[in-house]
Amino acid sequence: MSGAIFILFYPKKKQSDKDGLVSLYARITVHGQRSEFSLGRKIDARRWCSVGGKLKGSTKKVSDFNAFLDHVRNRCYNIHNGLLKSGEHISARAIADIYLGKRKRQWMLLEIFQNHNDEMASLVGKEYSSGTLQRYKTALKHTKHFILYKYKRKDTPVEKIDHEFITGLEYFLKLKKKLGHNSAVKYIVNLKKIIRIAYANQWISRDPFFHWKASWKTRERKYLTEDELQKLMSTEFQNKRLEMVRDIFIFCCFTGLAYVDVKNLAEDAVLIDIKGQKWIKTHRRKTKTLSSIPLLPIAENILKKYQRHPVVVKGNGILPVSTNQKLNAYLKDVAEACGIKKNLTTHLARHTFATTVTLSNGVPIESVSKMLGHTSLKTTQIYAKVVDHKLIEDMALVKYRFTYTGNQKRASTDN
């Protein structure tokens, strides 16, 4: 039961001191039950207005005292609301104890989550990207829906989060939100950060994620084969917009840059070393790591082709890159025009650089990792596995041919 809360301030006139001042008390009433405590302040009883529950007068001293009473009243209301959200039993004594510090404050999960997101929002563009913020906002929304679905509450105490809550949320995301395994795990990892904040601040005494470990399912990395890449480059377009989109995609295929890094690529990112080799040196927006990429002739020719484009002339980058949404939409038309059945996206170009352009041509994985701006070699090894898989398929054909030839020789010898 929620129970309405009533707060009354009153002076205990029978306890006046030698100066005629009396102690002021607060009385909290919930469910007809009362709890009283001293506010630690004394007043002149003659100046007390029992109807308004405050001191009479217009001086600054009186105004400050009445503001103090408003603060006490609002604090008690907030404690009451917090108990309501957590679904705990509400009593006058509980509210008084929390106010007096006799009971530890109960931190709420969604409250901490929202505070984290608010702080992150203030650092977008400095420490975080807008995409990262959006992901945490979505994680908060999913967690809120789960708490309402599972516990019929608007929030829950962070100290009540346990392994059952975590696995229940994962099941909810997959069953009710129809998310894939990796997407569900991604949002739980976001929640894990919030719990770690609570643990670091000693708002909880244990880490409920201690026995939980993120497990990721390996996704097939789509990329263009060498034949598909050649077909893409050799196709002529009558539509100039599609030609430009195709060229930007090819630029990404031969530099490995993600969409946001190509979009923000400035002229000073192209450098020339002492041997005359041109390089692209830029910090990745996602990881803040430096990508050092030799500028291949195909990519350099694309830069020259659009150096007079109005967008480039105005200083808005070195390529006329539109929004990621528009690029991906036009890439569908580009794929159709080139007879490519794969779903072309700006990120598929990055995969193509890692596999078809570099690793498949013998570029060491450490060099590929540096060009891609990966913070860990393990991330780059995902592409190496793709190349290995392709090699196994190719060698399977060789194995079949030689096995078949061997059978022929044995058959001719028997004859």
What integer is the average pLDDT? 87
Number of strands: 8
CATH superfamily heading of the largest domain: Intergrase catalytic core
Identify the CATH class of the largest domain.
Mainly Alpha
Main pleated-sheet profile: 3 strands, antiparallel
- Alpha-carbon distance between the two ends: 95 Å
Helix content: 40-55%
**How do the strands of the widest beta sheet line up side by side?**
1-2-3
Order of helices and strands: EEEEEHHHHHHHHHEEEHHHHHH
Structurally, how many domains make up the residues? 3
CATH architecture of the largest domain: Orthogonal Bundle
- Which residue ranges are poorly predicted, with pLDDT under 50 across at least 5 consecutive positions? none
Q: Say what the CATH topology of the largest domain is.
A: hpI Integrase, Chain A
Fraction in beta strands: 5-15%
C-alpha geometry: elongated
Please compute the radius of gyration using only Cα atoms.
33 Å
Structural class: mainly alpha
H/I helix tally = 15
What does this structure look like?
This protein is mainly alpha-helical and 415 residues long. The protein has three domains: 5-100, no CATH class; 109-200; 226-392, hpI Integrase, Chain A (Orthogonal Bundle), CATH 1.10.443.10. It is 53% helix and 11% strand. It is built from 15 helices and eight strands. It has helices at residues 60-86, 92-100, 109-122, 130-151, 163-175, 181-200, 226-234, 240-253, 259-263, 297-305, 310-313, 324-338, 346-358, 365-372, 377-414; strands at 5-11, 21-30, 33-44, 48-49, 54-55, 270-272, 278-283, 290-294. A three-stranded antiparallel beta sheet has the order 1-2-3. Strand 4 and strand 5 (54-55) form a beta hairpin. Helix 1 packs across helix 2, helix 3 packs across helix 6 (181-200) and helix 14 (365-372) packs antiparallel against helix 15 (377-414). The chain is elongated, with a radius of gyration of 33 Å. It comes from Kriegella aquimaris. Belongs to the 'phage' integrase family. This is Site-specific recombinase XerD. One of its GO terms (biological process) is DNA recombination. Keywords: DNA recombination, DNA-binding.
